[in-house]
Amino acid sequence: FAGDVYEAMAINKVEDDVLPNFLDFAQKNIRILSGLYGILKPLDLIQPYRLEMSTNFTNSKIFKNHQLSQNFSNLYSFWNDKITDVLNFEIINHKDKTIVNLASEEYFRAINLKKINANIVNVVFKEQKNNQMKIIGISAKKARGLMARFIIDSKINHHKEITNFQANGYCFNRDLSDNNNYVFVRN
């Protein structure tokens, strides 16, 4: 993958001596939501593609030759239960039954929250702009990549440990946060 989130993770800058442990932890703990593949582990091989999760295909011929038991109008309806089932299966082996959500709202909507067997902690990155706290898209994307890198480097195994994240001017804001939404602010 390329883009602001992945560039901020700076995988190519991981020192050779720690790379095997870095990749092992990432492979066991990081999941990537994909419009084409559904859910991926960091080392899964993929073909280059451009397909957004929000792509609609009402009356499309995409699935015409496939034997599907139901019609899907978009990628959310296609992936919803499949992604949720994988996450439910994988969370069984984790002591902290919490998913730290670093996905964009667009991609996170692909998870069926009514069927997920885990706590969800949404990570939100905000900045002070015109005397208001706002999410600035490009900055939030980079911050999500930095947070993913922090989780891997620090080998985070409990969601509360992410409150120690400090990068690119962001730090945890307890006053704006609650049990399900961790807000990181940069002034």
Could you please describe the fold and organization of this structure?
The protein is an alpha/beta fold. The chain is built from five helices and eight strands; from the N terminus they run ααββαβαββαβββ. It is globular and about 50 Å long. The model has no long low-confidence stretch (mean pLDDT 88).
Terminal residue distance? 30 Å
| SSE pattern, N- to C-terminal | HHEEHEHEEHEEE
Task: Give the mean pLDDT.
Answer: 88
Note the main sheet.
6 strands, mixed
Total helices: the number is 5
**What is the approximate shape?**
globular
How much strand? Answer: 15-25%
Tally of strands? 8
Helix content: 25-40%
Name the poorly predicted regions.
none
Q: Which class best fits the helix and strand makeup?
A: alpha/beta
Please tell me how large the radius of gyration is. 18 Å
Topology:
Layout: H1 4-9, H2 19-29, E1 32-34, E2 38-40, H3 75-91, E3 98-101, H4 105-108, E4 119-129, E5 132-134, H5 137-154, E6 166-167, E7 170-172, E8 181-186
Parallel strand pairs: 3-4, 4-8
Antiparallel strand pairs: 1-2, 4-5, 6-7, 7-8
Quick take:
The chain has 187 residues and is an alpha/beta fold. Helix content is 30%, strand content 19%.
What are the main properties of this structure?
alpha/beta, 187 residues, globular, two-stranded antiparallel ribbon, 8 strands, single chain
